[in-house]
Amino acid sequence: MRRFCPLIVTGPSGVGKGTVVAALVEACPEIWVSVSATTRPPRPGEQDGVSYFFCSELEFDGLIAADGLLEWAQVHGAARYGTPAAPVAAALAEGRPVLLELDLAGARAAKARLDGARSVFLAPPSWEELVRRLEGRGTESAATRERRLATARTELAAAGEFDIIIVNDRLEQTVAELVEFAGLGAECA
Q1: DSSP code of 48?
Q2: Which of 180, 136, 169 has the alpha carbon at shortest distance from 11?
Q3: What are the sequence ranges of the domains in the chain?
Q4: What are the phi and psi torsion angles at 84 (to 5°)?
Q5: What is the pLDDT along the chain (189 residues), one digit of tens a residue?
Q6: The Cα angle at residue 91 between residues 172 and 86, in degrees rounded to 5
Q7: Distances 129 to 101, 126, 141 between C-alpha atoms, Å
Q8: From residue 90, how far is each of 103, 114, 170 by CA, in Å?
Q9: Does the CA dihedral 46-48-54-60 come out positive or negative?
Q10: pTM (global) more than 0.85
Q11: Backbone torsions φ then ψ of 186, nearest 5 degrees
């Protein structure tokens, strides 16, 4: 059975992590993408175990106490999010390529806990393009966008901590670089 190194993907808000991961999974359907646990309630259309593992504060506390999360954080002083360790371990034991899409702090923590993990920092082609993408989403207020951009400066400064920096300029090229870096050629269509 072929052994894959876990792949951790991070980058600033607006760089296109979700779009890149979705395109990668479409090209390489064997990839198993981790599903985060959260204490926030489901939004319309979200499914437990697919979108997130929705759990109570008490259940989340139990995961922390049992060392059942690779990483976790409280986001915006409200809900907590984390990566359950058991499903990741099970997918790796099955010989599946595993991908974790995480924020900077989560990526650092998961890399420290996952033997042989390889880390990718997705970068925008330019600061101006990142601002354009965030504004183009139209999903945040101006204040939220400014907070995300301030965080993005910190995240971009940490890019050198990762095994590779891939500039997300053209989706197809970005996916091809990820496939090559992760050694996924045979698993991709």
Answers
A1: B
A2: 169
A3: 7-187
A4: -60, 135
A5: 677 899 999 999 889 999 999 999 999 999 999 999 999 999 889 999 999 999 999 999 999 999 999 999 988 678 899 999 999 999 999 999 999 999 999 999 999 999 999 999 999 999 999 989 888 877 778 888 888 888 899 999 999 999 999 999 999 999 999 999 998 877 676
A6: 125
A7: 21, 5, 18
A8: 23, 13, 33
A9: negative
A10: yes
A11: -70, -20
Q: Which residue has the tokens 């400014």?
A: 146
Structure-token pair, residue 137:
């989403």
Q: Quick one: 7-187 is in which CATH superfamily? A: P-loop containing nucleotide triphosphate hydrolases (3.40.50.300)
Q: Which residue is associated with the tokens 């002083």?
A: 77
Tell me which amino acid residue 114 is.
L
Distance of alpha carbon 159 from alpha carbon 153, whole angstroms: 10
> If we measure between CA atoms, which residue out of 39, 43, 13 comes closest to residue 134?
13
Q: What is d(CA 17, CA 96) in angstroms, rounded to the nearest whole number?
A: 21
DSSP 3-state of 3: coil
In angstroms, the CA 79 to CA 35 distance is 16
Name the percent of the chain in helix, strand, coil, to the closest 5: 45, 20, 35
CA distances from 131 to 80, 127, 145, 153, 158 (A): 27, 6, 9, 11, 18
